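COURSE: Structural Biology Practicum
ASSIGNMENT: Worksheet 4, Part C
STUDENT ID: 0417
INSTRUCTIONS: Below are two proteins. For each, the amino acid sequence is given first, followed by its structure token string. Answer the questions at the end about the second protein only.

PROTEIN I
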Amino acid sequence: MIMINLTNVSIAFGHVTLLNKIALRIDNGERICLIGRNGEGKSTLLKIISHEINPDHGKVECPQNLRIAQLSQEPVFNAKDTVFHAVAKSLGSVGQLLEQYHHLVQRLAHHDDEHLLAQLESVQHHLEAEDGWLLEQRVETVLSKLKLPPEQTLGEMSGGWRRRVALAQVLVTEPDLLLLDEPTNHLDIDAITWLEEMLLEFNGSLLFISHDRRFMQRIATRIIELDRGQLTNYPGDYATYLRQKQAALEVEISKAAKFDKHLAQEEVWIRQGIKARRTRNEGRARTLKKLREQRAQRREKIGKIRLNLDSGELSGRIVIEAEAINKSYQNQPLVRDFSTLIMRGDRV
């Protein structure tokens, strides 16, 4: 079953074309990793698929009632919401019932009121009819695995923890198509391992952006690369992509060398002056102009950086000595009464 189908999709911002007549088909059960250099338009492609923005040209087709959930790089929250409420909201009407239930339980813990009890009974009835308890368990499981404190307000959390909350929001919805932009950012090893297991068991389709090679190798069943507005498809896992990419790069280098040799010969010819200005050679001159334009548009392979640093004078035997260090963030203690002594040669 086709989850989404893009045909001749193009979009530009100003004079910069990010997507140029691309085609993409995502089938049910696929786990696709989207890779490319920063600024190529990967996040823009995810926004087009999620219908957050429209392309300048082309068609985006998907089944009716397709459920799409997206993890963006910059999620927006209500700072007054608790973690549980923020995640439950993503469940729609059932999430609202869960919020009402928890709110009523908290009020009844302080005030024994028959009216509140009647409201609680009504909410419980609706939750049972909507399988709300199962969804509540799902929310609690996701929060536990991501190590999120349910009752903490989002205004008290750092950007990294808020991103965990955003990840929890999309995971509890169990959509048909899941779009994840750098999902492993700000996660520890245990949380990443749990996320991998969850995605491997996910019944829908997955399109994700990542720079985590281990995560890509374990999760992806197909790699698509966005480069200069074009999508290239590489079936298989990340290791297969690396082999195919290397082979394609060797072919590209060979073609580029032949192209440069031909261009150099034409440059020698144009410098002969009067011969190049003869009428019968005007076509050859126009061809040279096109060759120059093609060469200017070529993107060179990223090279490796070789960095040499002059060695400074050795310090004493004591590298770091710290005593009774304290550090807080937003009134939350991060480090308390920390002392240490690190000697040269220590591996900490």
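PROTEIN II
(use this one for the questions)
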Amino acid sequence: MGDADSLDQLVQAAVAAGIPAVHLVRDGSEVRILVRAVSGLAPVRSLVAKPDWIEAAQALPNATRRGERVVIDLAAHERNGGGFTELGMPGSMRAAIERELLAPGGVILVASDDAAVMARAMAAAAYAPGERHVVEIAADRAELDSVARMDCDAILVRPNDDRALLAGAFDHAQRGVRIVLGIEAPDAMAAIARLRAVRVERHLLAFALRVAIAARTELRLCPACRRPAQAEGSESALLGVDPGTVIYRAVGCDACDQSGFSGSVMLFETVVIDPGLRRLLAEGGDVAILARHAFVRAPTLAASARTLVREGRITVDAAIRIARAAGAGSVSTTSHPHLLMA
């Protein structure tokens, strides 16, 4: 099984190795990793599990906990693969939005300032096992009305601030058609603000919107040559972590053509529209108030970036850039509340 810096990487490595189940067992101050083999459970001694992996594993949709043991059913993981699993969304985020993604009707809002990332995230939002009838339309209300009568599992729409198309999308969503709406914006709250700016009616936003998802990509540090270091004072302050926190820096080696990077990693933030947010949307609550409610328990893009920094997957500079982009993306007159906020 390959190396893993996080629980999600452990699961991905186990799936790639054909392992049907992973056990995490708390043993005093340590967490042991065991995998199902032909002869029984085999310990994994080459990886050191972090104490918080037990709670993180428990949040996975295919995990069961009893006492100090969490078992991750990777056979179920295989059946539920695809979609955001393939894009690397953390299991806790997938678990939070899973019910809303599989339910019929409603709007799934996807925000990104990168067209290619948006396309991948929109496709993931429309994914479900089995054959699906998914249609992507151009910015045309008449085409949307026609396609909505074709028994689609999902309709992918990029409205480009077309108010008539947006009104039609939310109207069809209320009638039971699943709409995946792509909005160019740096984060979920900025996307909601943009919908308000083109005057999507409050009650439509409140009662048709199900989930808002923001996605972006960053270069992935080369695991073969990345170098651990302690965060400097200015980096700690900008990133919102304790001074001396272990981070990783790019170095460069033959495996990455001396670039220090290998591939890319996708970051996410997810907002489930719960009754409290629904009420705030219906009342026209300020974006800052929406964000405070939305991110009480869910991580922002900035918080997701900090996690990836600690795991050695992206650089501190990338995380700081993400936090600043989130702050600059707010169109509210109030300072954006989730700049560098956990």
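ANSWER KEY EXCERPT:
Q1: The chain is about 40% helix and 25% strand.
Q2: The two ends are 32 Å apart (CA to CA).
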